Give the backbone structure.
Amino acid sequence: MNMRCSEGFTIHKKILEPFLMIVLIGGFSCMMIQKSYADPLQTLRAALPKQIQGWRAEPDDRVFDDETIFDYIDGAGEVYRAYNMRKCLSRRYTSPKGPPIVLDIFDMQSSEDAFGVFTHDQDGELVDVGQGGLYRSGWLSFWKDRFFVSIYMEEESVAAENAVKGLAKEVASLVSHEGPKPKILSLLPQEGLQPRTTRYLHHSILLNYHFYLADENILNLGPHTKAALADYKYGEENARLLLVQYPAGEEAAKAHMRFLKTYLPEADAKRPVLLENAKWSSAALKGKLLVIVLEADSQGLAENLMKEVISLD
Amino acid sequence: MPNKKKVITRRDFMRASSCVAMGSLMALPLLGKSSAKETVKSRVVLVREKDVLDRTGQIRPEVLRAMLDQALMALFDAPAPVWAWNHLFKPTDVVGIKSNVWHYLPTPKPLEEAIQENLLEVGVQEENMDADDRGILGNPVFKRSTALINTRPLRTHHWSGLGTLLKNYIMFVSWPFKYHGNACEKLGAIWQLPHVKGKTRLNILVMLTPLFHGIGPHHFSPKYTWPYCGLIVSTDPVAADATGARIIQAKRNAFFGEDRPISPPPLHIAAADTRFGLGNSRTEQIHLIKLGWGKDILI
């Protein structure tokens, strides 16, 4: 059977029907792809509250990417870039009752990196929001899934503080899932681990911020590496431990060699080295994992801490 | 074959500290330049007037101008401010005023205006001066500048510990974030770039309402500023910054009720002295002249 179209062309049904089927299937597939790649930050933005306890959102949100973030928060933008920030959404709430409140939602692309950003500054009192929250002097921060959220009041007041905490809970409830913490954390010995000293990071600039090691990236840290830094206390003795996971054993081995050559040239395989500040340091490899006791108060502590990590499966 | 640069590690700092007396600063090797100021003290003027801010915290421009005049006269032992400005600038100079636009604590407009008025009074042409911050690399006045004036408010900073006069020149490079490593220790290197080197005639560190502690991504809370009502003026940016750093440290200790070091430590100030030879960071090498309001001066 043939079909006559308005232009006078004749299209055979046996061609038209399969053609229409292909168009329909293709269109449906495109819609599904578009849905699964919907911008998570835009999705969250659409659900954000327009008002909270008397504070009203200003009409225009601002969105920053990994280049324009510096225009917004100056050099501090480097922290978020070092954790693979994709975008930051900023919304301002105002009220005649109190100072403005600034909500910044950072899309870190993964829960691991959202957690990492959160560990960068762990001062303050714990608050039960998201997967971890802290409050100090006019600033509340929390992380949940791929998002790191910062809520800041330009001046402190009781009403503004209540609004900030209310807003935090509401934003956290809009993030439907929780995300995993970095797997490398499971390699940190638990005994003696000091609370709120664990940092997860990728870049040497962040390692140097928390523990200055060298003016060059002697551990070859970067987006491809995962590192955990933590403080330990055993009795009166303290230690600082660094774990770095590399994509391949060969890279870990190279980093190990470079670290020894640059930082512990006098090291031998068996014993920690006594540093100029009377602390002890050592480094060892376990497959793709480089383990460094950065500083320990005694040789025995350095050796035991190293053994603890190396012996973990 | 060129010499490979030695990596500076934490252990180098440990070694240097173990050789240097308490209260002195790190003695790391200079990068090919020796300090020209080893035996000459740097003059720094700290001028304060409690009435420079009104009850609402707004600047009184006439008081600020008077403070600047006093500082210049004291710095050069000049009988009048115009004498000091004449000493520093010629009518044929092209002057870039490196300001700072950080939203929460920018260089005050009345100060920029006072500087420009003084430059006009000594014959610098209006079209040959401009104040700028983030646009300086494309700014035509800065591009043909023969002289620079460096001015900004002192504040804590996420990466460098303090946002200082030395740090203010970071916009003279295309990729500022490349200088963030190790608490921005290498900022002094920017001052040796061809388009910067030797041009800075005057440094004014604004201490009207300094920020002594920062939190969060915005690094600002009014709670951590206070009306110090001062200006620090010098031809030596390192000495001016070192003086400002002492004030901030003293304020932090007083506010928190304990020793609370600036974090991260502003290593770039000492490094500008010992590694880049840009000025004097040690107290004993600074001749500090204090003028005006003395209450709670902190140093």
